[in-house]
């Protein structure tokens, strides 16, 4: 549930941005993510995949062998950039002064976390709860309408603060989400110069974050991060599980084509069924190369990404 709410909040903030700000987000390489439909969360599928993750091998272990999400999967499914400078840098012991200067938001002394509510309110997301009887589309439209009133409509200095707050929300609550309610400021130093943000390989950092989340404590059943990625990865490579529905063929990035099939069974029953299905999954039904025949039309980010396909994220 939290993943779906976070997706709606971030999408509402993006839709509230004026056109010149959305253009900047697109130039940074994040625009394709916001063209993806709000996919239904499938916790049973992600839990079943997580149970097959081998921490030592950093790969899924199935009866037919090892499988691992690749940089090509990230590029084609999400449209994120997998080439450029590494998303790396110095970790500050305290982000108080940096957050004040770059976000105009409070961060506790000796902390790297910005309060989630303060961050959302900086973007005009004051009442983020869903009203009774409100549809998902009505909820999204209301959030975007209220948020739009608080954001700078012209390229003035306040607009840079707005954009950084949005990027921190996007990176901390969606792309690199964790189970913490507060939002980590670890990416804030990379956002100081907004003109440099698009030069980083955010897609490569994203898949590394996925691996890190999958390798977390075995007592954790869910995974952190942008949930549509693993779901669509399973739809493409393990179609016989029948967890996804191809509703919009031909759209790019590929995540735009799919939705999660509704399963009304109890989560425990779904998980048991998926575990059994994976144990007996026919080898010949595994799709090892799902992108054969896929063109590059409408996907300019693939041109520079191709030399990285087939290479390890490490």
TrEMBL record:
Q: Heme as a keyword? A: no
Would you indicate the residue range of the signal peptide? 1-23
Give the matching Pfam families: PMD
- Single biological process term from Gene Ontology: meristem maintenance
User: Where does the record place the Aminotransferase-like plant mobile domain?
Assistant: 29-293
**Keyword entries, A-Z:** Signal
Which superkingdom, per the lineage?
Eukaryota
Q: Answer yes or no on keyword Signal.
A: yes
UniProt cross-references to InterPro entries, sorted A to Z: AminoTfrase-like_pln_mobile (IPR019557), MAIN-like (IPR044824)
User: What name is this protein filed under?
Assistant: Aminotransferase-like plant mobile domain-containing protein
Organism for this UniProt entry:
Colocasia esculenta
